[in-house]
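Can anyone check this?
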Amino acid sequence: MLNRLQVRNYVLIDSLEIDFPEGLIIITGQTGAGKSILLGALSLVMGSKAEASMVSEGADNCVVEAEFETADMSLKTVLEENEVEWEDGHLIVRRVVNRSGRSRAFVNDCPVPVTVLQDISTRLIDIHSQHQTLLLSDKAFQLSILDHYAGNMELREECARLWREHGALKLELAKLDERIARLAGERDYNEAQFRQLEAANLKDGELAELEEEQKQLANAEEIKTGLSTVEELFTAASSNGEALSLDASLKEADKILAKIGKYLPAAAELSERVDSCRRELDDILSEVSDMNSRTDLSESRLMEVEDRMSLIYSLMQKHSCREEAELIALRDSLSEALFDSTQLEEKREELAGQLSKMMTELEAVASRLNDARCKHAGEFAAAIQESIRGLELPYAIFEVEIAEAPLSATGRDSIVFRFSSAGRNAVDVAKCASGGEMSRIMLSLKAMMARYTNMPTMIFDEIDTGVSGSVADRMGSMICEMGSFMQVFAITHLPQVAAKGSAHYLVSKEIDPQTSTAVSTITRLSDEERVLEVARMLSGSVLTDAAIANAKSLLQQR
């Protein structure tokens, strides 16, 4: 229930803080006093659109804060999902709107998106405005009322869940089909590209090796001549045999130094160094000879290397790659794409199977919903008809027609409320001409909602429009009865309704003497003040003794 409402700088409300009790709460006031402004402030804190015009003239911002108590544990889940602490069902909801029209929302002092306010408001309060009889032409509203009466809400939630999951799977399958079609269109091209890259048998770093080999092959003759010359320098001796080869000379030097070393230690050390140099030179000569033997003067190998390099260069240019690694990555991605088409076909079959299974489950839930609706439609219609007849429409007929509709989140049913005040030829209730009849039908439906939806607070904004006299009294009694098991606010111009309930608030507009601007206020009336207010509603601005007596009589009947 709504425990407290605090408003600052909202349109004509300068500052207001008021507490509300349980049961039926009556709100009255002259036309233009600000009752709709009060309702607008409450709608704002419940998530309606914020506008700059809501901020009072001269103020920087407006603040609306409402305090609720609720036992609805589904709200706990909503709050925890938005990192708001659940304080045993105690909620303080606040909305701040600045001069530019931008707003901020808070629940228990934690900032939240406005969508959270809209979500929790559907579980906290139901506001019936003067024009909400338009809901009578809303098939979703009609279906919701019947489902609440029939106890179908769990089935509806299951149906909605399956519908969402079915839609998600259907969308995933459509995207998969699009991808498969795209791959199929590109398959021939991708396959040709892949085959070319696959045939190239690319290896990372190969191009650098080929460039090195090409350089050697292109200069093989010069390399071989140089290596041969080095070999000759190491091994050649003079033709007359007087000069020794480099190796023979070092061996002879080593032998002489070793002999001297017997007498001169330093010579022995030189002998070891000469021997080491000779061995190192032997190794060098061996490697030079090996390189010389391996140096290839083959023109055919040079052509092979240059052809291979040309192939790799052309592939890199064709695919805008800078190195073999990029070509290899492209080849692998093309391979995956070609492989993916097969994998995707398998995944499509799996998704199609899941979709078919889910459709079967959805059809089953929709069938159960249809059975429950058909089972309860008659007694629901009879209950509403009885309620309407109790509002001085003794011949009224109210019927519920259920027809098959395309499958949706609410099942396969379309619903039509049919009504006739004359007892025959019932037509779609949306086509009823009388505003008074519409008000009575809507009140009967709202009374049913109050009983079966567990809504803690309901607000009626002049639901009694278009009725008067004893009908107004009966409507007041019905609203009062609703107030026995929930909190009900009734904004009314009818004294018969205003006399009901235990708490009466008066909305009035006064001129602030300091600023000369109009300011709306709301105050709770005492018993004596209430008599005078009901009398005013009966007689107008001039209070007569008869009106006061009549007001006292009405208040005693509550």
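Reply from J.R.: I decoded it. The chain is about 55% helix and 20% strand.
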